[in-house]
Amino acid sequence: MLEVRGLYAGYYRDLPILRGVSLKASARQITAVLGANGVGKSTLLKTIFGLIRPEQGEITLEGRSLVGVPPHRMIHLGVSYIPQDHGLFREMTVEENLAMGAWPYRRDRRRVRAKLEENYERFPALKAKRHQRAGQLSGGQQRMVEVGKALMMDPKVILVDEPSAGLSKLLTEEVYQLLDQLRSEGIAILLVDQDIRHALQVADHVYVLELGRNHFDAPAAELQDLERAFWV
Asked: What is the CATH architecture of 1-78+156-232?
C-alpha cells in the first residue's frame, strides 16, 4: 500500500540523514522501523508525511506519488501522522480535539458527529471524559485521543512516532493494544519506537536502519537476535 524507494532526505541540503531508505507498509499489518538514536527513524516519517521534502527517491500510496504533497493534503489522501511530541490542544476538551481531526469537513456537522460516535464506541474511556480538558488526561489517554483524532479522516495509513515515549509499561501496553486493534480494522501502520520489545511483539514486519540506510528487514517472527540488526 505505502512504498518508499531509494529515499534521501534531511534538514540541510546535501546533508541527508536518510541515505537510500526503502520499505513497504501493507494494509492489516504493523510495520516497525527500529534502530539506534539518530539513524533517521523520525526523519523518515516526517518525510513521508510531507514535512520534509526528499532530495531523491520516491514515496507512493497505492501507486500515487506523495512527493511534494503538503501535510494538509496528506489526510485527504488517506495518510495520518501521530508525532512523538503530543499533538493535542491541552486547553481544549477531548471532544474538541477529536473534532479538529475532522477539520476539512467541519461544516458537515452530521458527519463530524458520526465520526465522534465511532471513536467513542471504539474508545469508551474517551466518551466518559469527552468534556474534560486534554491536558488533564493521563499520558495513555492523551495517546488515545491522538489516535482517535487521526481516525476522524478514515486513514488508510497511520504513521506513528515513538508511541511509548514518556509512558509507563502499563500505559505502553494499552497503546500497543490500540495499534493492534487498528490493524485488525484494515489500516496499515508504520511505527517507529525505541521500545524494541513491545514493537517486536506487535509488528508483522521489521526494518532496521543503520546510519540512515537499510541494514536489513525481515518478518518480526524471524527477528530473534537483535545484535544482528544494530548495536545495542
From this structure: 3-Layer(aba) Sandwich (3.40)
